[in-house]
Hints:
10-stranded mixed β-sheet, binds ligand 26Q, 6-stranded parallel β-sheet, globular, alpha/beta
Amino acid sequence: MTYVTSPHSGDTPGDFGRDLLSNLYYQRGTTLESASAQDTYHSLALTVRNRLVDRYIRTAAAHYRANPRFIYYLSAEYMLGKQLDQNLLYSGTEDSAHRALEGLGLSSSDLDALDVEPGLGNGGLGRLAACLLDAMASQDIPAVGYGIRYDFGIFKQAFQDGGQVERPDDWTFYGNPWEFHASDDQQTVGFYGHVEPLDGVRKSWVPGEVVLGEPSHMLVPGYGTSTVNIIRLWRARAARESFDLSRFGAGQYGEAVEEIVRSENISKVLYPDDSTELGRELRLKQQHFLVTCALRDIVRRFRLRNSDWDDFAGKVVIQLNDTHPVMAIAELMRMLVDEEGLEWDRAWSITRRVFAYTCHTLLPEALETWPVALVQRLLPRHMEIIFLINHLFLQEVAARYPGDDAKLRELSIIQEGGEQRVRMAHLAVVGSSAVNGVAELHSRLLAATTLRGFAELWPGRFHNVTNGVSPRRFVRLANPRLSGLISERLGGQAWLTDLDRLVELEPAADDSAFRERWREIKRLNREDLARHALAATGVAIDPDALCDVMIKRFHEYKRQLLRVLHVVAQYHRIRRDQVVDVVPRTIVFGGKAAPGYYAAKRIMRLANTVADLVNEDPVVSPYLKMVFLPDYNVSRAQLIIPAADLSEQISLAGKEASGTSNMKLALNGALTIGTLDGANVEIRDRVGADNFFLFGLDTTEVAAVRERGYDPRAYYDRDAELREVLDTVAHYDKDIVDDLLHRDEYLTLADYRAYVDCQDQVARAWRDREGWTRTSILNTARSGFFSSDRTVRDYCRDIWHVTPLRIDG
Ligand code: 26Q
C-alpha cells in the first residue's frame, strides 16, 4: 500500500505562511485582509495540525502492519492543556511559525490567547492521564486514550464577594480545530430493559433505551519521536429513529425531541469531583457509555488483524484510571459470554488478564460504590454478572479462609448492611491482573489498610508506580527561559526526553555566574506572573518578593486552611513590628472547589477575606501580599509554576495519594515545604533532606494522636499566637474556628506550630540568596525521576509488558 504524503510538508517560514494563507482561503473562505481573529486562529491551528497528520498516518500504518500489543487507557477525565503551544513544539515548527506570523503582521501571543484548553477533567487524575499519553507517544508505545467528549468541561471559576461562583465551560463555542470526527465508527449503547435466558450461563440483554456514541479524536504527538497516537473521545447522540413523529404531528414539538435531549445529556457535562461520592444516575450512565464505546472500539481494532479470542489478552491491555471505568470488567464479560458465546471460565481468564487498575485515593469516603438497586435497573445484565463474579470470588475466599465470615464480608464486591451497594474498587481488584498506587507511601498504605485483605490474598498483584509529569509541558513549554539555560549548560535538549540528565546540572549549583542567571530567570518569571495577577485581581505584587505557591483543588485534607492560618499569624507579627523572621512574600493560591463542597468553599472565602485584609493594610502589605488567582487550570499552571520559589505541600500525612504539583514545582526550582505525604516523601529522598523544609506529623504519629484521643482545643489553650490567629479568624467565620476547636478532622492545629516554625526557617533560608539559589538548582537537578517518561517505563516493565515500536521518521 502506498500513502500519499502531506502537501503541507515544507518547514520554512515561507512554507508555513503559504499554508496558513491557503487555510484562510479554503477552510475559512477569507483572506488576511478581511479575516477575523477566529479565522486567523483556526487557520493557524490547521496549519500546525497538518504538520502532524503525516506522522499520524505513518504511525497508524506501522501499527497496522506490526499488529503490536496496545495500551488502551480508559479515563473519565483528561486535562490536556492548550494544544497550540504543544503542537507547535512537537511538530518542530515553533520557529518557522513565529517568523511566518511576524512576516504576516500577526501576533503569536494574541493567537495563543484564542486557543482554548479542553478542561475535560477535575485535577490531578485527569492531568496525569494527559502526562501519561504524552509520555507513551514520546516513547513509541502504541496506545489509545479513551474518554468522554463533554460538551461542558470543568466549570470556570470567578469570585463574588470572596466566594466562588461557577460558570459553564462552553469550550467548543467557536469550534475545536484540533479534533477529527469519525462518525463511521459510532457505537450503540444500551440502558435499562430486561434479560432473557439463552443457554446455561448465557443470557440476552434487551435494552430499554439505546444511545449512539459518536467518536472524534485528537492527535497525541510524541516529542522527539515520529509516533502520533490518538485520544478518542465519545459524544452521545440520539439514535436516528428516536425523533417522535406522532408527537410532532400532534403539535407537541417539545415532547417530540425529548428523547434526543435525554440521550445527548449523557455527555453534556463533566461532574465536578465531590468531597464524597454522590450516586447520581447520570454519572453512572456516563461511565457505562464510555466503557461500552471504548470496548467495542477496542474489539473492532483487534479484529482488523486478529480473529482468535485466545490472542486478545496478548494484544490488549486496558488500564483503568481509578474506578470510574470499572464497569468495563462486567461489560467485557457480557460481550464475551452473551454475545461471543465463550465459556464463563475462558471469558474470565481473558478479562482478568486484560485489565489493570490504578487507585488514586486512600480516603475511604472517596471509594466509589453504587446502589445495587440502581445498577439492577440501569444495567440488569451487568448486575447479574457482577453477582456471579462475586459468588465465584467468595468461593475462592472461603476456600482460603474456611469459616471466616468476617473475611467474606470484608472482601465481598457487594457491601451488605443497609442498602446493598457495589464496591467498584473491589470489582476492579478482582477483575484485574495488576493494581497500583501512585506513590511509594500510597501503595504501601493501600496494601496495609484500604485494600489489605486483597493484598494478603494476592500479594503479587500489587504494585507501585510513582506518578510523573511531562517535562515538555511543565518545563519546556511553561518555562522557556529556564529550559534555554538548561539546554545551554547541558549542551543540547536531550534532557527533555531523558530527564535523569538534569543531574548534570549539579556542578552548576556551585557556579556563581550560573546562579546569577538562574535568579534572573526566576525574577523575569515572577514579573510575568505579576502582570497576570494585576490584570486578574487588581493586586500589585513585588516581583522581588519570595513567591510562595499553593496550587491544587480545594479540599479539607490538603489543608489550605493551615496556609491561611500562617498568613494571619504573619499579619499580626508585622503589625506588631516583629519582622525578625519576615521576608517580603507573595502568597499565591490557585484551585477550584466542587460546587457542592461547602466546607472547602468556606475556606476559600476566608482566604479571599484574609487576602483583602493583608493587601489593604499599609503596614503589612509591603511585606506580605496575597493573591488568589481565579480559574486555576493547566494554562494558569504553566504561568504560575515557573515563578514559584516555594511549593506548599502540606496535606495531613496519609491523605494525599501522590500529588503532582509538588513534582512540577520542584522541577522548576521551587523548594518544598511539606509533610511526609504522597510523593513528597520521594521528592525529599531525592533532593536531600537539607534541601527540603519538612514539618508535621508522619502517618504513624497521626495514628498515635488519634489513638490517644485528639483534643484540638488543647493546642489553642497552650499556644498564645495560635489563639490570636483563631480569634481573628473567628471574627470573619466563627464556624471554621468552631470546627477546628471541636473536630479538626485533618489535625490542622496539631501541625500548626511545626508549620509556622518551619516557615520561619524558610524566611531565614531566603535571606541567604546564594544558598537559596544553590538549593533551587539542586531541586531541579535531582528531580529527573519525576518525569512521566519514567512513570511509563515503570508501567511498561511491571504491568503492561510492552516494548516500544519505533516509527520511522
Ligand atoms: C467522584 C464522584 C462523582 C463525580 C466525580 C468524582 C471524582 C472525580 C475526580 C472523584 C475523584 C476525582 C479525581 C481524583 C484525583 O484527581 N485524585 C488525585 O490523583 C492524582 C494523580 O494520581 C494524585 O496525585 C492526587 O494525590 C489525587 O488526589
